[in-house]
Amino acid sequence: MDGSKSVSLSLQLPTEASSISLYRFTYTAGDAERGVVANCTLPKQGRAKVTVGSSGLLLDTVAPSTLVVYSEYLL
Fold this sequence. Notes:
Elements: E1 7-12, E2 21-28, H1 29-33, H2 36-39, E3 47-51, E4 57-62, E5 66-71
Antiparallel strand pairs: 1-4, 2-3, 2-5
């Protein structure tokens, strides 16, 4: 895998998870250097809401050198 390219993500969730909103937390290499990941904190610009479709399918694109965490709860 080429670490300089974005990766398409397709995640099939259980039917019960269809049409729910999740929070998407994006951590970059710079966040790790500042200790953001270790402290589980993230500035507001690093989180966003995503909605799972009625089929329970979550589609996303993850940028290079990035960790993405999805949560039903706002951390």
